[in-house]
Amino acid sequence: MKSRALQPDLPLFLPDTAGRYAGVDEAGRGPLAGSVVAAAVVLHPDRPIAGLNDSKKLSAAVRARLFDQIVAEAEAYAIAEATVEEIDALNILQASLLAMRRAVWQLLDQGVALTGVRVDGNRCPHWPDGRVLPCTPIVGGDARDAAIAAASILAKVTRDRQLLALDAMHPQYGFAQHKGYPTAEHLARLAEFGPSPVHRQSFAPVRRVCRP
Predict the structure, then answer these.
(1) pLDDT per residue as tens digits for the range 94-120
(2) N or C: which end of the chain has fewer CB within 10 A?
(3) Pair 34, 84: CB distance under 8 Å
(4) Do residues 207 and 201 touch, judged by C-beta distance below 8 A?
(5) What is the average pLDDT across 121-136?
(6) Is 212's pLDDT higher than 90?
(7) Helix or strand run (H / E) with residue 116
(8) Phi and psi for 81 in degrees, rounded to 5?
(9) Which alpha helices (DSSP H) does the chain contain, by range?
(10) Where are the alpha helices (DSSP H) in 34-128?
(11) Contact present, 133 and 127 (Cβ < 8 Å)
(12) Who contacts 46 (Cβ-Cβ below 8 Å, separation ≥6)?
């Protein structure tokens, strides 16, 4: 099914006329390490959540507070991921779409009846197993659609917590500080210690370090 990306010149926060839809977003496409995480959220029409926005525009403390509120007050939500191994096998774009699809499938497996999906970005996941859903990609959707914004917060907080756990396992890389992104400090430690099992071998900065 073809879908048309809504462009960012439309009004901020699109009207909720899509029925019982899930907002979907991912976190972790750019880092050199760790999984890519996606979330899907169906907001409750009678329990609006104030302060939703693109997770990157919120402080860590605000994201954590909103995470708990979304989990408590959303009509339904799901969080899924694609692993480092899947990222290396598929490429990061396809792995991100896979994580999104898994999040939506979790909602369907919970018995949530969806009329459609809104996804942050310019493309939708494929629906290869017969469960086809109308899907609208929205450029800048995490700042323009409340359900997508909620999904962006769940995905970002979940992934950041994963990187804190990885930091405890591999403290030499400083994951707690840079969350796997290719900062100067991360690249320096990668050069010093070589890649860990949680680094994405298909990413160029990691490949360079792996060369004999």
Answers:
(1) 999 999 999 999 999 999 999 999 999
(2) C
(3) yes
(4) yes
(5) 85
(6) no
(7) strand 116-120
(8) -150, 165
(9) 60-73, 84-90, 92-109, 146-169, 175-178, 184-193, 204-210
(10) 60-73, 84-90, 92-109
(11) yes
(12) none
At position 207, the amino acid (one-letter code) is R
The CA distance from 170 to 63, in Å, is 25
Token code pair at residue 189: 């430690």
- In this prediction, residues 8-23 reach a mean pLDDT of 57
- CA dist 195 and 179 (Å) reads 15
How far is CA 160 from each of CA 30, 135, 179, 183, 205, rounded to the nearest angstrom? 13, 27, 6, 16, 21
User: 3-class SS at 38?
Assistant: strand
3-state secondary structure of 138: strand
Determine contact, residues 121/148, Cβ cutoff 8 Å. no
The residue with tokens 């979330």 is 39
Query: What CATH topology corresponds to 21-168?
Result: Nucleotidyltransferase; domain 5 (3.30.420)
Tell me which H or E stretch contains 42: strand 36-42
